[in-house]
Structures are given as structure tokens and as C-alpha cells.
């Protein structure tokens, strides 16, 4: 269906969401580090270094410590990606994904060290060979068959999470495979309950581990399952209309019930499931392309294959399931400067277009640099022209091929450096706050230029869809 939909009767965005406390991220990070300290302290309290003089004692003791820390980090991984709202809004999805990845690889190697050291220590104390001792551990100790199966699943997930392997997978495939990590954690850790000497050594240890297990399980049940189911049922989102914006780009407008109670703000994204036929179970992450207004939400999608190619064919009335909102590229994270520079490339304009609503609503002076290859690739041209006329927004279209390899500027800037080009476009850039969104390589080049132009790192806001 072709047509244009007004986002609100007044043309003003509806203010939603909750303020972001800057100390939330510090609190979450400190709690994660403290958990590792607590694990080591409990290991020492329960006699972790007491038996170093016994045959096999050093290996066994070190194996228990590495196993405990690996278990702690595995559960922290679950909490990192449990979509806890205040953690999501403090860090942003991309920062959480990077920490999840780092913690995941550390816990994986500690888990392998735990397996090897425990097996070696037990073999030394019993006089058996390592292979025989490993077999005995698996078949005779409670929970070890489950732990072996869980370890195998985690190995598969880790191997497929290596960057080279991820590049060969669709997001939907990787996401489905990654869900097996939950099963791997669920199978690998329960042997603590039955055979873990450190787990059962004291009431304090049992309280800590049961509490961490309950927190991880509760977070998944509440925030990954319960909250999306509740919001989908309560708000009853449906496709209202689909509007072409540019070649291969469409906007999907969605209506729902009580959307004023949906805590979404400009710059955030949802994971969407459109109930339009086979494949609806795969969620697709799309950013809001305008600030939430009244009873309407809007996303704008470029046809990049997979699920995005289906957006243009969506029928009005199609039901929609949602997870979110997620992301931290919002005006809540502004440092307070009265002038803002928005920088977008390609479909990254969707996020900048949404932020434009919030910024102009509070009287911020805005300049938008919009990188496109061709005139016809520009999305929201009419809406941007309206922002120029009504709010005095300065919009600069950076059109054409690249000025040089690695440059984010178009070819008309071939005779100057990127930094000089930016200063010519925005002379007061060092005194502005900057929001940017686009392809990762483009954003990396822009970040380097902003740094050279004197923009403090704390005044540059960006978020990549990371997985």
C-alpha cells in the first residue's frame, strides 16, 4: 500500500522511556568483577590451597579454581545477554555483545583448563593413566555424562562464534545455533551440585551459587521470554501500511494498543517477528526510524535479502510479535551540548531520522551529514526538507564515490584530508556532540576523523548491531 502516514496530530514526538543513570553501567560492571572475587575468596575459605602437598594436589586444586571461575563467567554470560532493561540501556547492545564475547572465550578456555587439570590431578592421585581416569570420571561420577554433553555443545557454539565462521552465517542461523549455549550451560553446570566439593563445602558457598543460578535463570525467564510475550500480547501490534521510501527501501508503519506505555525512545530497536507465513519464527532487528508518536511506530528497512526482502510484501493487518526495546543510541546519553552533529551512511539514516525528532523537540541546533552514493538512494528526503524548513536543521548530502580508499567522504573532497573536509563542512565540530550510524568500516573512519578534529570521545555516540 502506498501512502504517507502522519506520526502524530501535533507533529511532536511522544516522550517515553526512563532516564538513564550513568552509574548503572559502573554498578553492573563492578558487580560482575566482584562475583569473580567472591568465587576466589570462597575457594580460599573452603581450603583451596590446603592440599597442595598431596600427590595430585596442585593440579586438582587449580582445576577446582578454574572450574569455579569458568562456571561464574558462564552464568555472567547468560546475565549479559538476558536483555535486562537497565543494563541494556546503560551499555548498549553492541558493548554488551563485545563483553559477552570476551567473557565467553575466557570462560571456555578456563573450562577446558578445569577439565584437563582435574583429570590430571585425579590420575596422579589414583595412579591411573589420564585417558582411563577421564573415562572413569565421565561414567562413574554423578552429573558427568550431562556435563560432557553440555561441554560438547559449548565447544560447537564457540567454534561457530569465531569471527571467520560467523561471516559465513546468516544472523538468523547464528542466533538459532547460539541458543544451544543455554542448553550447554544447563547441562554443564549441574555436576557442581552433586560432585562439587567447593559448592557443598559451606552454607555461604551454597547460598552464593544457588543465588547466581537463580538470578541467571530468572533473568532469562523474565526478560528473554516473559516480557516479550507480555508486550506482544498487551500491545497487539499489527502492520498498518507499507510505504516505499527509495529503491529497495520501505517504511512499515505499525499500530497497536496502549503504545504510550511502551518504554521505547528514538534510537532504539526491536526484534520483530511478522506473522506472515513460513519463517515468522526468525526475529529481525530493525531500528525505529521515527520517534514513537501516538499509536504509531515506524521502522524503515532496506532489502538486503533474507527477511528484509519480505517487508515490501507485508499486508495491512499482519500481526507482529516484538522483543525490546533495546539499544543505547538515544538522546538520554547526551552530555548536554546545545549543538549536535548527526552523521549517517546508507540505511543508518533511519536511526538519525528518529533522533532528529527528539532533538528538534527540545530546541537543539542540529546539522546532519548524510552519505549516499546516488541522489535516488536518499531516504526521507521530504521529511528532511520539512525539518530544514520548520526547525532550521542543516542537512548536507554527501553524494558520490569515495574520495580515496578508506575515506568516508565523497570524491569531491579528494584534494583534502578527511579531517580538513569535516572542518570545512562543520567548522565548530569540536564543540558539538556527535551521533553516528552506518556500516562498521565507515563508522571506524568517521571516529578517527572526529578524534583528529578534537571531538572528545565522550561526546561521540554510536552503536553497531553486533552479534
UniProtKB/TrEMBL annotation:
<feature type="transmembrane region" description="Helical">
    <location>
        <begin position="102"/>
        <end position="123"/>
    </location>
</feature>
<feature type="transmembrane region" description="Helical">
    <location>
        <begin position="207"/>
        <end position="227"/>
    </location>
</feature>
<keyword id="KW-0479">Metal-binding</keyword>
<keyword id="KW-0812">Transmembrane</keyword>
<dbReference type="InterPro" id="IPR039261">
    <property type="entry name" value="FNR_nucleotide-bd"/>
</dbReference>
<keyword id="KW-0274">FAD</keyword>
<dbReference type="InterPro" id="IPR050415">
    <property type="entry name" value="MRET"/>
</dbReference>
<dbReference type="InterPro" id="IPR017938">
    <property type="entry name" value="Riboflavin_synthase-like_b-brl"/>
</dbReference>
<keyword id="KW-0472">Membrane</keyword>
<keyword id="KW-0285">Flavoprotein</keyword>
<feature type="domain" description="FAD-binding FR-type">
    <location>
        <begin position="232"/>
        <end position="332"/>
    </location>
</feature>
<keyword id="KW-0001">2Fe-2S</keyword>
<keyword id="KW-0560">Oxidoreductase</keyword>
<feature type="transmembrane region" description="Helical">
    <location>
        <begin position="65"/>
        <end position="82"/>
    </location>
</feature>
<keyword id="KW-0411">Iron-sulfur</keyword>
<dbReference type="Pfam" id="PF01794">
    <property type="entry name" value="Ferric_reduct"/>
</dbReference>
<feature type="transmembrane region" description="Helical">
    <location>
        <begin position="143"/>
        <end position="162"/>
    </location>
</feature>
<feature type="transmembrane region" description="Helical">
    <location>
        <begin position="23"/>
        <end position="45"/>
    </location>
</feature>
<keyword id="KW-0408">Iron</keyword>
<dbReference type="InterPro" id="IPR017927">
    <property type="entry name" value="FAD-bd_FR_type"/>
</dbReference>
<keyword id="KW-1133">Transmembrane helix</keyword>
<feature type="transmembrane region" description="Helical">
    <location>
        <begin position="174"/>
        <end position="195"/>
    </location>
</feature>
<protein>
    <submittedName>
        <fullName>Oxidoreductase</fullName>
    </submittedName>
</protein>
<dbReference type="InterPro" id="IPR013130">
    <property type="entry name" value="Fe3_Rdtase_TM_dom"/>
</dbReference>
